[in-house]
Amino acid sequence: MIKHFFKKLGFSSAPFAGGIQPDMQKWTESSAIEICPLPPLLIVPMKQHIGQACSPLVKVGDAVLRGQKIAKAEGYVSVPVHAPTSGKVIKIEEHAIPHPSGMGLPSIFIEPDGLDERDTSLQPITDWQNMDVGALRERVRVCGIAGLGGAAFPTFIKLVQDQRNPIKTVILNGIECEPFLTNDHRLMVEHSQKILHGMQIIMHMVGAKQGIIAIEDNKADAIQSMQHAVDDANIEGLDIQVRVLPTRYPQGSEKQLIEVIIGKQVPAGKLPMHVGVICQNIGTTQAIYEAVVLGYPLTERVMTVSGDAVPNKGNLLVRLGTSMRFIYAQRGLENFEGLQILHGGPMMGERLRHPDIPVIKSSTGLLALSQDFFKQAHAVEEPCIRCGHCSEACPIGLTPNLLADHCRNEQLEKAADYHLFDCIECGACSYVCPSHIPLVHYFRFGKGQAAQVRREQNFAEASRQRSESRDTRIQREKDEKAAKRKKVRATHAPTPTEAEQGKE
Fold this sequence. Notes:
about 35% helix, 17 strands, alpha/beta, Rossmann fold
């Protein structure tokens, strides 16, 4: 029956290069979304997106409302930050953020008052079909929406109509191919109509007529829920369909998904818009619906809490700024001795040094793994045996073992020749490596070194230009002074007498 249902939906088996089929361990796929209680303290970092950090609009002692803008965007690639609940600002100082280094960023500390009162300054836009698309895009920006699939790219930047690159297709990415994670899966099951509504808003904003909701075949209930939503909506003038894809990692990567869905490859250095497509994450799409139709800024998100060390696994609706330690405690985990904490999924997530870190917009999941479980995937590195498994698994078609050698030896030009910056860091190569070589770690190291070299080169070039500009200015000033002196001498020099002229 399920196979017949998939066939009816237009089940696609179009492959993409490389990829793997890891043990998905979707232990929480049947766990309904639960609301996480408000913590006694919320820590809201000033940077929760790709781009420039925000600057605070509040000061210590200020009272704030839920959804109130507490930090303004600085620069184009930036979105504001909002208070997750009503309460009082008790301090503004640096605090650790989700990053393997343990680095910190300026953050606003809010003590909830328990009332959870909303700021109602943003009015709902129910008649969005007749609204100027620029105004809708501005609503998405002021509501602080960034990609909730983990990339955290400011969403409003993607929602633009460009006559040079018209968008024909909007793809909703419901793949969620990372092991453990099920937050998008549950959103599709429980909030399919909101997601579909959000998709229509996106299509209106970019001028697309075709919409495809891509879901892997290991999410039968999500497929049925989204298909029922499409059938019940009876949408006129738009072609929206659910597309079922075979389960394969990293099919959720934007370029791989586009290749599977429309059969076109996004060229290196180009964006999906250059082939007439934009992709949006499921959670981001629902956030767009709430921003436009309800007038709600982004103050919460759904995340998966899982791992063999978590007694009560589940999917939680969590306020941004909630401490991860508090979340683990709600699921029955308080002792972290000997455990590994991961922010995100096991393939592309980040290992954290401790759980006293706040949830941010890119927090898709929170895993706690025992040492034995973790060691299964992180054994001692051994020499490369040149088996070629990594090349077969790479969805980009790279040669990871040779690329890792160049990165390890800091041969950055050679690494660039082997297309280092085309790597999407999916971890498929590391997963299949029989020698347990952490290939992605070497790629990240190489990218970091290359970025440092570029910064140094840019600094040196800027210094050279400043020096040349200074030398040019000094020479110009000397020439101007010399010209002035010459003019003064010519104007004020004594005129020779007739006797003097006769002597000559």
